[in-house]
Amino acid sequence: MAATTTPQQPTRTEHSQNGRPSIVAGNTEARPGLMTTEFWLTMLVAIAVVAISYVDDSYSVDLGWKLGVGLVAAYVISRGIAKAGSSERYVAQLRD
Question: Do the strands 23-27 and 89-93 form a parallel or antiparallel pair, or are they unpaired?
């Protein structure tokens, strides 16, 4: 699933004191991590893996914690890689 980063139009501001146009930053369409479905599914699965390790004897509790932490770490790394190619801030210079 490829994310495109189409910048929103920056809001117009006044010129700075020296008469030059101001630099305005707008946001991309990228959402914060807590607002994504992937984050919540990762947390749900990690919690389920740890909880099952306490209930079921098929694998140890230590392994359950390692797997849960591994899932969260994999999410963080993949989110970082996905965000590396896109900039969070779009900077544009306003002209007359």
Answer: antiparallel
Instruction: Express each pLDDT in 11-24 by its tens digit.
Output: 445 555 666 655 55
User: Residue 66 contacts by C-beta under 8 Å, 6 or more apart in sequence?
Assistant: none
Give 3's contacts (C-beta < 8 A, 6+ positions apart): 29, 30, 82, 86
Q: What is the pTM of this model?
A: 0.57
User: Any idea where the domains of the chain sit in the sequence?
Assistant: 30-85
Distance CA 71, CA 79 (A): 12
User: How far apart are alpha carbons 50 and 38 in whole angstroms?
Assistant: 18
Q: Which two tokens stand for residue 94?
A: 């306003």
Written as six digits, the tokens of 37 are: 């479905």
